[in-house]
Write a structure and sequence with these properties.
The protein is α/β, with parallel strands linked by helices. The protein has seven helices and eight strands, in the order E-H-E-E-E-H-H-H-E-E-E-H-E-H-H. It is globular.
């Protein structure tokens, strides 16, 4: 069992009250055209006047701080593998490349993985990214509309677990991952 929160103060307090493992959730607003995350602050930081954002929590120093009160992090999956938009008409905005009427992950390309998993593990933290879904709009174009490809990439990168709206796909993908002789993540 884990207790998880996007706030920091309550996890620090809970750390003194319970032996249940704690997870610091890490969020962002979205990604920009280039794949850079658009950050904001935990609400309790805003209330206390702390100017740090979630981006500060995923630095080595931030992860070391989290390790003093939590057992793991639950970052939005784009902190680990981001996506960049395609600006085919050069207007500075990502385009609806697949023509489905909206700009979403299915119109975007994967970027190389960040060092977040390694950095978190170095700080002694578990890593459980969120949220994995089977619908095309949540899958980068590189995955070829196959959610198993996304799960396999993240398992190969070393996540300790993950949040999924489709546990059957998550579990069957994990079993497939365990049978693979080596990892070959989509690029």
């Amino acid at each position: 069992m884990f207790i998880q929160s996007f706030e920091v103060a309550n996890l620090k307090k809970l750390n003194t009250m319970t032996p249940i493992r704690l997870v610091q959730l890490i969020d962002a607003v979205d990604v920009d055209l280039t794949g850079e995350l658009i950050h904001y602050s935990p609400y309790d930081f805003i209330l206390s006047g702390d100017t740090r954002t979630y981006a500060d929590l995923v630095t080595p120093a931030g992860l070391s701080e989290i390790a003093t009160y939590a057992d793991g992090i639950g970052p939005w999956k784009r902190y680990i593998v981001s996506v960049r938009g395609i600006d085919a008409n050069a207007d500075g905005q990502p385009d609806d490349v697949n023509g489905d009427g909206s700009v979403n992950d299915a119109d975007k390309q994967l970027l190389p993985p960040s060092s977040l998993i390694v950095d978190a593990h170095d700080a002694g933290l578990l890593v459980h990214p969120y949220t994995f879904r089977n619908e095309t709009r949540y899958l980068a174009a590189n995955y070829g509309d196959n959610p198993v490809e996304e799960y396999l990439q993240f398992y190969c990168l070393g996540v300790d677990g993950l949040f999924s709206d489709f546990p059957d796909t998550a579990v069957s993908s994990r079993e497939l991952f365990r049978l693979l002789p080596s990892c070959g993540a989509p690029q």
